[in-house]
């Protein structure tokens, strides 16, 4: 409605301008015609001249008098002022229209998937709301959160030119949050944590009053196109598992994880699904033997957990240990809802020295810590967003702080879910016992430095 109104307003202004120009043109045109008639009269008989001139003068349009022009200009000016006053009243009344669900152009956002393909549009006012953080102590491990803050901030500093995805403002851009705001938020929090830890005191970032005074607190309501009734964010959990494995294929450990070589001539690996790889194309006798390097041989269950979690710690039968993280995939998207063994996406791994999160290549990935890291939609929500979750535990309100420093195929796009890095576990049973204490849904807030 606002766009249509503006178009009408511009049309009215243009019409008034044309009207004023027309008055001026008629006046000048009459003067010109009178001058032409006067010149013709000098070559004809005086009597004929007078008759002809009088006849033509009677047939010409009458020039408006100066008083008429002034009155017309006043009418146009008054009409324009009235129209402008109406527009102002319209804008004021419709800036936050009560009882209406108008999608304003300035808050409309086009959601994309991992291939940068448009999926749907959403009004960000339906997703984000400015609020105050509840007055409950915020929980987190100070040293671990500081580490992930520093590593994420360094990623912005070192790889912004190589990884344009992190320069996307995403949906929060429609709320006035820029990438510069994100880095300033991290800089401030890093400084506060360093100072508080150095002085051996509980950090001010655990004080909700300090947070409310220094940060914009933006409530994030879930936007799930397949479940419009969902209001709170779904909080899933992931982990790093320790698995036994072998450096050589055995009857027990017969499922490989591979590493791509650095000197690749082409992306041959994008032609093959997970099922192709597991059929043995890279093993001795396979058509692509020698093109990749086997890192470890696991059970099939071990492989699926490594693919799902992104990182795996392998205790080898020879007594050694290795940490492996996903590096590059075959370019086939993850299909939400399809069981793991049927997924066609396959990840190639690389040996690393820590648990790794987001990064455009393996050597650039952010080192992360359990308990303070979320995996989320880095294209539409954004890397480095500081999150506070609110939920009830044992009948008491609990606030938990972390940062989006990881991602995954299930989060592109995803405006209704975060994945919490719960820890390092020996098996699924230990993992299940731990996450049973955590919420499946929670209120979520995003902090942005004022």
Order of helices and strands: HHHEEEEHHHEEEHEHEEEEHEEEHE
Instruction: Provide the CATH topology of the largest domain.
Output: Ribosomal Protein L25, Chain P
CATH class of the largest domain: Mainly Beta
Please name the fourth-level CATH homologous superfamily of the largest domain. Barwin-like endoglucanases
Query: CATH architecture of the largest domain, please?
Result: Beta Barrel
Quaternary organisation of the protein chains: single chain
Q: Outline the biggest β-sheet.
A: 6 strands, mixed, barrel
Average pLDDT across residues?
A: 83
Give the N-terminus to C-terminus distance in angstroms: 33 Å
What share of residues is helical? 25-40%
> What ranges have pLDDT less than 50 throughout 5 or more consecutive residues?
1-13, 15-63, 66-77, 83-105
C-alpha-based Rg, rounded: 35 Å
* Tally of separate domains: 2
Read across the widest sheet, the strand sequence of neighbours is 6-15-12-14-13-16
Structural class: alpha+beta
What percent strand?
15-25%
Outline? globular
Number of strands: 16
- Count of discrete alpha- or pi-helical segments spanning 4 or more residues: 10
Q: Could you describe the 3D structure shown?
A:
This is POLO box domain-containing protein. It is built from ten helices and 16 strands. The protein is an alpha+beta fold and 450 residues long. It has a six-stranded mixed β-barrel with strand order 6-15-12-14-13-16, surrounded by four helices. Strands 1-2 form a two-stranded antiparallel sheet. It starts with a helix and ends with a strand.
């Amino acid at each position: 409605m606002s766009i249509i109104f503006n178009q009408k307003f511009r049309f009215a202004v243009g019409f008034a301008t044309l009207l004023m120009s027309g008055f001026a043109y008629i006046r000048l045109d009459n003067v010109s015609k009178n001058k032409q008639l006067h010149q013709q009269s000098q070559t004809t008989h005086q009597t004929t001249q007078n008759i002809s001139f009088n006849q033509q003068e009677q047939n010409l349009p009458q020039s408006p008098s100066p008083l008429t022009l002034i009155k017309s200009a006043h009418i146009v000016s008054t009409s324009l002022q009235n129209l402008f006053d109406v527009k102002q009243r319209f804008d004021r009344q419709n800036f936050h229209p009560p009882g209406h669900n108008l999608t304003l152009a300035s808050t409309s956002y086009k959601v994309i998937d991992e291939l940068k393909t448009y999926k749907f549009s959403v009004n960000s006012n339906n997703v984000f709301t400015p609020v105050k953080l509840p007055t409950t102590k915020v929980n987190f491990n100070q040293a671990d959160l500081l580490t992930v803050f520093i590593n994420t901030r360094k990623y912005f500093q070192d790889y912004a030119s190589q990884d344009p995805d992190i320069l996307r403002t995403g949906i929060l851009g429609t709320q006035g949050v820029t990438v510069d705001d994100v880095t300033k938020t991290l800089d401030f929090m890093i400084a506060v944590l360093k100072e508080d830890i150095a002085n051996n005191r509980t950090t001010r970032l655990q004080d909700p009053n300090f947070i409310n005074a220094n940060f914009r607190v933006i409530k994030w309501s879930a936007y799930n196109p397949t479940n419009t009734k969902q209001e709170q964010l779904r909080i899933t959990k992931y982990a790093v598992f320790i698995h036994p494995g072998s450096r050589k294929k055995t009857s027990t450990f017969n499922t490989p994880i591979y590493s791509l070589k650095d000197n690749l001539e082409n992306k041959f690996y994008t032609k093959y699904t997970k099922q192709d790889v597991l059929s043995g194309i890279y093993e001795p006798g396979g058509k692509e033997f020698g093109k990749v390097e086997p890192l470890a041989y696991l059970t099939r269950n071990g492989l699926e957990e490594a693919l799902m979690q992104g990182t795996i710690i392998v205790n080898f039968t020879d007594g050694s240990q290795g940490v492996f993280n996903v590096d590059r995939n075959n370019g086939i998207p993850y299909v939400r809802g399809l069981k793991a063994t049927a997924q066609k996406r396959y990840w190639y791994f690389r040996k690393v020295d820590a648990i790794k999160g987001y990064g455009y290549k393996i050597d650039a990935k952010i080192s992360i810590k359990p308990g303070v890291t979320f995996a989320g939609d880095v294209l539409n929500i954004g890397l480095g967003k500081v999150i506070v979750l609110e939920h009830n535990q044992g009948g008491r309100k609990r606030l938990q702080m972390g940062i989006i420093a990881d991602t995954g195929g299930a989060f592109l796009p995803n405006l209704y879910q975060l994945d919490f890095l719960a820890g390092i576990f020996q098996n699924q049973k230990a993992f299940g016992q731990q996450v049973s204490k955590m919420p499946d849904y929670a209120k979520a807030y995003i902090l942005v430095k004022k």
